[in-house]
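Continuing the batch. This is chain 6 of the set; chains 1 through 5 are on the previous pages. Same settings as before, nothing changed between runs. Recording input and output for traceability.
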Amino acid sequence: MPELPEVEALAHHLREHAVGRTVARVDVASMSALKTASPPWTALHGREVTGAGRFGKYLDLDCDGLHLVTHLARAGWLRWADTMSAAPPKPGKGPLALRVHLGPPGEGPGFDLTEAGTKKGLAVWVVEDPTSIEQVATLGPDALALTRDEFGELLAGRGERLKTALTGQRVIAGIGNAYSDEIMHVAKLSPYATAGRLDDDALDRLYAAMREVLLGAVDRSVGQSAARLKGEKRSGLRVHARTGLPCPVCGDAVREVSFADKAFQYCPTCQTGGKPLADRRLSRLLK
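Output for chain 6:
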């Protein structure tokens, strides 16, 4: 899933390549991805792109006061092309959800919003105010906008596991499954630690790790072409999606805890005092 660094890099790419251009046409290939009906997507036609930014993991394209807001979900992506096909896409065919022409179709540049796989979660809104979208309005503060004191106040008294708190978008916006694993590994904290019971030293390490991991990923990602961002993300990961490989810090094997539709990775030596965490799904299979 694209997280804060990748979405920031996509917003930067759009600021560099889309701002100042005019939306010539928008093609909707997946009506289920479009979550608003008024204003219609055709209201974007003829509008100049005046800005691009993000709200947590939500990408925002400002078209002279009318916003195209996208959540890429687990398997969505933005694909930029210097020349877009002029032929309107066939609805429901392939991964394409929406196409934006930023010049005469068949001649000018633009981008596709695509989603791989059969489980669809990509969502697109056309709104005058992004905060009218409930999912945006209820986001917590952005992970990179927090001071150390604000970070501590957010976690104070919270009873959920640290992994859950870091990935809860209503708590802190922008961190997903991959970067939460990386942050906890750098901070040397267990994913199962209780978020509200961390002492000041642990909070200091966690806050510093959050900024180190996210800012480092942003620095590596911004300026890369959209096509290279996924590879850039994978190349910078130390424990996430590296089950069975040696931890780059201590050499212990990276372990995994699996759930129904996702998993997280960690290093026992660095994070849990050498003790593997219970993987209930694996335990049931071994019975």
